[in-house]
Design a protein that fits this description.
Blueprint (H helix, E strand, L loop, with lengths): L1 H5 L4 E4 L7 H15 L2 E6 L10 H10 L6 E5 L2 H4 L2 H14 L2 E4 L1 H7 L15 H5 L5 E3 L16 H11 L5 H10 L2 H7 L13 E4 L4 H6 L4 E6 L2 E5 L9
Parallel strand pairs: 1-2, 2-3, 3-4, 4-5
Antiparallel strand pairs: 6-7, 7-8
Length: about 240
Amino acid sequence: MQQALEQGANLLGGCPYKDDNPDQHIEMIFDLAEKFDVDVDFHLDFDLDPEDSSIPKVHKETIKRGYQGRVSIGHVTKLSAMDKMKRGEMAGLLKQAGITLIVLPATDVYISGSGYESLIPRGMVNANQFAELGINTAISSNNILNAFTPYGDASLVRMANMYANIAQLSTDDELTDTFDMITKNAAKLLAVESDITVGAPATLVILEAKDAVEAIRTNAQALAGFKNGKQTFNNQAAEIYFE
């Protein structure tokens, strides 16, 4: 990882739950991040045991090193197994340290509870509950078409639609917040411009929907995409033939 950073890598990730010493793993990642002044992402707490969460350690190191707003954690399926009080305690730590929570619906649901034969748990965190507390939340794909997630097409709208179904969201406000998770919240995490204003980078996707709520409810198709003003793909809008 140090060699990669020396060669220009500008982000750093860790996976403490796969290490025999997760606390040391977290410290090592932060040491490297500080040395090269890069942001940090952790695949964290990917199981359904409510005990022994690494969130307190990540919180401690984030505060200690002044990394508020520069850390994200993904999966964190342990949160779904915690009772309301414990989950609230963890949410308080995330908010205090400015840590972004990323939900990875396809992998979280596919892997979590795979050993169960009945009443299979979803194992996915309801990020809306954390967003209501002022925590930055995002939705993403962990993997696409591999052993961890044997489905997918890189559509974040599809991930958001899947997430909303699993979290049993229904109101327009909830779906608007969900749309934010794949747009402005993700942009905030990456420290990139997300507002459509004159002079902003022309990097955007056009969806076949009238608004954010319809985009999530209908799993809207992407009609076109642009990267820095250059069109990168095009899809024909659906045509309906009436008799």
